[in-house]
């Protein structure tokens, strides 16, 4: 029996909340599990990672394999480093709009400087 330490997804649509569970590898993602060893909420700022490292170490000693995501969360908890936020990419359309707005602001500033120079 392959035992995995993995994330079980809970919460509403587009509002995920995860439980870190020890489960048989044959069980479904959100199905029956052996033991709950932690929680992970990616929506809060900063992200909440609550993992019982003693239980995790016991299960790893028994042969349980953490998934890549859970292994990363365990490393974050062990090192005490915060989860790095990814920068949000803006679309080409939004970038073009921002560039046009910056250009318009620069032109307005130039015209204001000319008007001020003429007034003197």
Provide an overview of this structure.
This protein is 41% helix and 28% strand. With 120 residues, it is of the alpha+beta class. It has a five-stranded mixed β-sheet with strand order 4-3-2-1-5. The longest helix is centred in the last third of the chain and has 28 residues, at 92-119. 13% of the residues are buried. The model has no long low-confidence stretch (mean pLDDT 88).
Q: Return the average pLDDT rounded to an integer.
A: 88
SSE arrangement, N to C: EEEEHEHH
Rg: 25 Å
Number of helices: 3
How many strand units? Answer: 5
In whole angstroms, the N-to-C terminal distance is 86 Å
How are strands sequenced across the largest beta sheet? 4-3-2-1-5
- Give unreliable regions as ranges: none
Secondary structure blueprint with pairings:
Layout: E1 3-12, E2 15-24, E3 35-41, E4 48-51, H1 53-61, E5 65-66, H2 68-79, H3 92-119
Parallel strand pairs: 1-5
Antiparallel strand pairs: 1-2, 2-3, 3-4
């Amino acid at each position: 029996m392959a035992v995995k330490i993995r994330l079980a997804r809970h919460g509403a649509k587009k509002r995920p909340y995860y439980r870190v569970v020890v489960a048989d590898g044959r069980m479904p993602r959100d199905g029956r599990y052996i033991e709950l060893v932690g929680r992970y909420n990616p929506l809060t700022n900063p992200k909440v990672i609550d993992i019982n490292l003693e239980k995790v170490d016991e299960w790893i000693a028994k042969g349980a394999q953490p998934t890549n995501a859970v292994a990363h969360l365990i490393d974050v908890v062990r090192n005490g480093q915060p989860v790095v936020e990814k920068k949000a990419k803006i679309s080409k359309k939004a970038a073009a709009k921002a560039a046009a707005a910056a250009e318009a602001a620069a032109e307005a500033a130039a015209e204001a400087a000319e008007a001020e120079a003429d007034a003197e």
